[in-house]
Design a protein that fits this description.
This protein is mainly beta. It has one domain: Porin (Beta Barrel), CATH 2.40.160. It contains ten helices and 26 strands. It has helices at 3-16, 30-41, 56-63, 69-77, 167-173, 175-178, 181-184, 299-302, 308-311, 316-321, and strands spanning 51-52, 92-96, 100-106, 110-127, 130-147, 151-164, 190-202, 205-212, 215-216, 233-242, 245-254, 267-279, 282-292, 323-335, 338-348, 365-376, 384-394, 409-410, 413-414, 423-435, 438-451, 463-464, 472-473, 499-515, 518-531, 536-547. The strands form four sheets. The chain has an 18-stranded antiparallel barrel. Helix 3 packs across helix 4 (69-77). The longest helix is centred in the first third of the chain and has 14 residues, at 3-16. The radius of gyration is 24 Å and the shape is globular. The relative contact order is 0.12.
């Protein structure tokens, strides 16, 4: 990065008067893993892992835990910006204490930390569309700082280059790159990424505006409302924890395209979540969500205390175009080290038509998730492991909408669980930590999917409407595509109807900090899908080295 560019970023950091409150989960997972493991072993309440990102208080509490290897790592990683550390007021450049820092400054009021990183990634893929290898390079910088522990700032900028390989195939290996249009569709050699926000936080209030991964839920594998692996959203987050109650709301800009491939104008997603922990071993939460588009920012949905289902029925336009949903989450720790969790996600609900197999019954669109996690070993000790298993079912047309523009997606990918409607999945995950920053993760899943019936051109079959003869309708739509909810009025939806496919997937991830500031990640993925409209065998492997952070 050019010196003038770095100087400009530093000037912005100082002028905003900011504080970094949490990690970029793409680069530093220790604080997130620590909170999850503590919720399992009983050190923290079950509800403490229900929302990501975490706040400054969480990091402060983690670093104060004596004898915890995870706490020691958090204290080391965030040392320049956590209260109680060096307050000499001296600006230090290119300094090495326990780890390399590009810059750091701390006095009684202001704290700023700057870091730089360089990533190299080599990969291989074997796909029906082609076989080959690739090489990527990505420099990046990060700046975070604080003023009086209330105002906050976090900025992570990167700009990478494809040194070899075909960009469209690389995008199949890394879904994040598939969302960069210039890289995946225009075959350019450059790609970029940023995570950034400003924030105000006190003990019982956090207001954040910017871009960062969001998660609602208790599953270590994936979650229904906000998934940590979903595309990043830009927007507002308000988090209000108070004793056993926690209220969280988001209002974010999303991206989408219509059936003609045109960009959806001003698509927004808003969510509320209120959680209650009657005891440290149990947490229950209810969330409501709304997707709207085409009319700019709607103040009705910006209201933190609005009930979106009712608000969406308040006018003809909202009732016609907007997509409202509601979900219920619960997690229980019956014994230290064991957690049971579940989610009921309701896209549409009509008590009068429950059990109706005609098209009238399509007014009920649900998804279910049941799972369990078991801790093996002691948190912070080598070879601590966690095993999780869950079953997920997403009924036909769930997450979708009759207006494709209002599907529960961004960049045409689910905001929640990464699975298409009219599917179910059995998933198992095993994680072992050798150190807080060195872990092995294995994911196995088996998915059944009733796919839409397609014509010879790959489009959904169109035919005579069974209820309105002489009118064409998407008769091949069985509710199997999150982007195509326009066929739910044709006939009664039946779970796993359509063209059946069976997918088996394996993913192995080894991540380690070999030495301070030197990281490596090895990822191996294998997918076998039989039946359906596009059977495939797909193997990929990547080796990444990162110096800095």
């Amino acid at each position: 990065m050019k010196t003038t560019f770095l100087a400009l970023i530093l000037a912005i950091a100082w002028s905003v008067a900011c504080v970094a409150q949490s990690a970029d989960v793409n680069a530093e997972r220790v604080s997130m893993d620590m909170q999850m493991l503590q919720a399992l072993d009983g050190t923290s309440s079950v509800g403490s892992m229900g929302v990501w990102p975490q706040g400054l208080q969480t990091l402060q509490n983690q670093r104060m835990q004596q004898g915890s290897a995870f706490g020691a790592y958090v204290a080391d990683y965030y040392a320049p910006v956590l209260a109680g550390n060096d307050t000499s007021g001296v600006l230090r450049l290119l300094e090495t204490d326990s780890r390399f820092r590009a810059l750091r400054y701390a006095d009684a009021t202001v704290r700023v930390q700057g870091d730089a990183s360089m990533m190299m990634q080599a990969g291989y893929y074997d796909h029906p569309l082609g076989t080959g290898s690739f090489l990527l390079a990505r420099p990046s910088i990060r700046i975070m700082g604080s003023i009086n522990e209330n105002l906050g700032f976090f900025l992570d900028l990167s700009n990478g280059k494809r040194l070899s390989g075909q960009s469209s195939m690389i995008a199949l290996v890394d879904p994040a790159l598939s969302r960069i249009a210039k890289f995946s569709t225009e075959d350019t050699s450059f790609f970029d990424r940023y995570v950034g926000y400003i924030q105000y936080q006190s003990e019982h209030l956090r207001v954040r505006f910017g871009r960062e991964p969001i998660q609602y839920g208790f599953s270590p594998i994936d979650n229904m409302v906000h998934s940590i692996d979903a595309p990043l959203l830009d927007g507002l987050l308000i988090d209000v924890p108070f004793k056993s109650v926690r209220f969280t709301t988001t209002h974010s800009a999303a991206n989408g395209t219509d059936t003609a491939g045109n960009v959806v104008p001003t698509k927004f997603v808003a969510t509320h979540r209120i959680a209650f922990d009657p005891a440290p071993w149990i947490s229950v939460a209810v969330s409501d969500m709304i997707v709207y588009w085409g009319r700019g920012l709607d103040l009705v949905y910006l209201n933190p205390l609005a009930f979106f289902v009712s608000a969406g029925l308040s006018t003809k336009e909202r009732n016609r175009d907007d997509n409202s949903m509601i979900s219920f989450d619960a997690a229980v720790r019956p014994f230290p080290g064991t957690m049971l969790y579940g989610t009921w996600f309701v896209d549409d609900l009509n008590f009068a038509t429950i059990g109706d197999t005609s098209r009238d019954g399509n007014t009920n669109k649900w998804a279910w998730q049941f799972g369990a996690s078991q801790l093996i070993g002691t948190v912070g000790k080598p070879w601590t492991s966690m095993v999780s298993a869950e079953y997920v079912r997403i009924d036909p047309f769930t997450y979708s909408h009759r207006t494709m523009n209002a599907s529960y997606t961004t960049f045409n990918a689910p905001l929640g669980y990464n699975m298409q409607p009219n599917s179910d999945r059995l998933a198992v995950q095993w994680r072992t930590w050798l150190t807080p920053r060195t872990f092995i993760r294995l994911d196995l899943d088996y998915t059944r999917h009733g796919e839409n019936r397609l014509d010879s051109n790959g489009n959904i079959e169109v035919g005579d409407h069974p209820y309105f003869p002489g009118n064409l309708a998407p008769v091949g739509n069985v509710g199997a595509d999150i982007l195509r909810g326009d066929g739910d009025g044709v006939r009664g939806a039946r779970f796993l109807a359509g063209v059946m496919s069976y997918q088996r997937r394996l993913r192995l991830w080894l991540s380690a900090e070999l030495w301070h500031n030197i990281f490596t990640d090895v990822r191996i993925g294998y997918t076998s899908r039989t039946g359906g409209n596009s059977p495939e065998q797909f193997f990929s492997g990547t080796l990444e080295f990162r110096i800095g952070y």
